[in-house]
Amino acid sequence: MPGSTPEESYDLAVLGAGPAGLAGAVTAAELGLSVALLDSSGQAGGQFYRHPAPATGAARPEALHHDWATFTGLRDRLAASDVTPLLGHHVWTVTRHVDHEASGARWTVHALTGEDGSGQRPVIIRARAILLATGSYERHLPFPGWTLPGVVGAGGAQAMLKSGLALPGRRVVVAGSGPLLLAVATSLTAAGAEVPELIEASGYLGYARRPATLAANPHKLAEAALHGSALLRHRVRLRTRSAVTEAHGEDRVEAVTVSRLDRDWRPVPGTARRIACDALAVGHGLVPQIDLATALGCVTRRTADGTHALELSPLQETSLRGMWAAGETSGIGGSELAIAEGELAALAITARLTGVRPSPLPRLRALRRRRDRMRAFAETMTAAHAPGHGWTRWLTDETDVCRCEEVTAGRVREAVGEYGARDARTVKLLTRAGMGWCQGRMCGAAVACLAARATTAPSPPDRRPLATPISLGALARLPEASTAPTGAGTPVGPVAPAAPVAPGAHAGAPASASPGGPTGGAGATEPTAPIQPTAPITPTEATPRTDPHPHPTEGHPS
C-alpha cells in the first residue's frame, strides 16, 4: 500500500560492498545461502575499489588500481550469483530479536534509500545472520590553516581521482602518516599532478623490528617497492619524521609549513620551512567504522595507534552471537586481508546456519593461516605509524578543532584546565565540540587527545544509537511491528537503539562524513524517545561476552 515499508528476509545480510563484503557475499551465495548485500554507495567496490561512474566515460578505470583483476573477479562472481545487491541503502541501525517459536529472522536491518530529507524511504531487511564489513574512515589531526580550501583528506584526494577523474590541485603536497600516503602520491603523479614532497610524520624503521613478519608477507614488500620506484621516477622527495604544521593562504592554500618532529611528534624548534603548493592532501591513518556493532554492545579492543576495533573469534564472529565482521572493522589491514576475512566469515556463517561444514579442513586451515599472517603485518603497520602524543603542540589556541561548531583548541583547553573535563564527552557538553553535522567524526580524535591526561585510562568507544541521519518523517513511516515488537520476539541487545526527538529535521550522524568518533545528538545530549521499548531480558542475553574468543568451535567449520 502507499507509504508502506518494504521488507525482505534472507539467510545473511552483508553490510558493506567493499572487498570484505563482496568476498563474504559471493562466497556465502555460492554455498547456497540467500544473501542481501547493502551499501550506501551506488556501486560495489567500497573505498578501495572506488571507480568512475559509467557517465564519466572512463576508458581505463584499472589505471588507478594495482590489483583491478581481483575486483573484476569479485564483480563477475557477484553478477553470476543469486546475491541481492541493495546499493544506495544507508543502514541507520540494526536490532537483534530472539523468536523461540518461529523460524524467522533474528536480525532486523533498518536502512534508508534516497537523499537526505523528504526523499528518504525506509527499508527493512530481516536476516538470520549479519556480516559487518563497513570498512574505515580517515583520521584527521588539525593544524592551523587546515580549514582552507584546497586542504583535503589524503583518502579524499584519491576518491576524487578514482570516482571523478579530478585532481585537488596541480601542485599537491601529500602529508600525514601511514602507508595510504604512498598510494595517494603515486596515484596523483600518475594522473599528472606535481607532488613536490611526501611528508611522513613517522618513519619506516618500525617495520624492520619485525623481520619475520616482513619475510612472511613478501607481497607487501613488493607493493612498497612499486610505490617507491614510481615516486623516484616522478622525483617526489620523501621526508620522514616531519609534518605539515601550518597551511597558509587567503582564499585557498598557497603554501604549507613543514617542521621536523621528535619521537613524540613535537615540532623541533628552528626546523620550519615553507613549500609552495595549491593543494594539500593530508591524513593520519584510518579508523575502523564500528558504530553499528558498538551500538549493540560488541566487545572492542584498543589498537596500537589508539583507535578501537572489534574483538573477534578465530572465525570472525563478534562477541554477539550471530554477528560476524570482516575487513577494517577488526583493524586496518588492506584489501587482501579483508578478502580473506570475508571468505572465512562466509564459511563460518554457512556452517552455523546449515550445520554442514562447507569446505575441507585443509582449505579452512590455509585460509586461517593466510589471515593470521596478514593480520600480523597489519599490527606491525599500525604500531609503526601510531601518532605521537606531542602533535597537539602544533595547535594554537585559535586553531579550529571542531569545524562544524567552530570550537577552537583554546576553548577545549579551557574546558580541560578550568572546568575539569577529562574526556571527549565532557568536553562536548561544555563546548559543543562534536555536536555538529559530522557528530565528532572529524574532530573526535583531536578532542580526545586534548582532553586526555597521561594517567587517564583509554576510554571505550562511544555508542551511537543512529549510524546515519534519518528524518522524523521516515521514522513515522516505519510499520508498527518495527516500533513495538510483540509476542516472543523481543530485543536482546545490551542497549535498544533509540531515536532522539529534537528540534529540526534529522537525528543521528551522517554516513558520508567520516563515520566514527564521539557520540552525541545534534544539539541534544541524550536520546529521549526509544524506537522500540526494552522488554525484560535475562542477564546472559543482555550482557556481551568479554571473552575475546567466544565459542570458537561451536557451530563453526574447524
Description of the structure:
This protein is of the alpha/beta class and 558 residues long. Helices cover 28% and strands 21% of the residues. The protein contains 16 helices and 26 strands. The longest helix is centred in the C-terminal third of the chain and has 24 residues, at 361-384. The relative contact order is 0.14. Residues 483-558 have low confidence and may be disordered.
Layout of helices and strands:
Layout: E1 7-15, H1 19-30, E2 35-39, H2 68-80, E3 84-87, E4 90-98, E5 107-113, E6 121-132, E7 136-138, E8 151-153, H3 154-164, E9 172-177, H4 180-190, E10 197-200, H5 205-208, H6 211-215, H7 218-233, E11 237-240, E12 242-249, E13 253-260, E14 273-276, E15 279-284, E16 286-288, H8 291-295, E17 300-302, E18 308-310, E19 323-325, H9 335-354, H10 361-384, E20 400-402, E21 407-408, H11 409-417, H12 424-431, H13 444-451, E22 470-471, H14 472-476, H15 480-483, E23 490-491, E24 498-499, E25 506-507, E26 529-530, H16 539-542
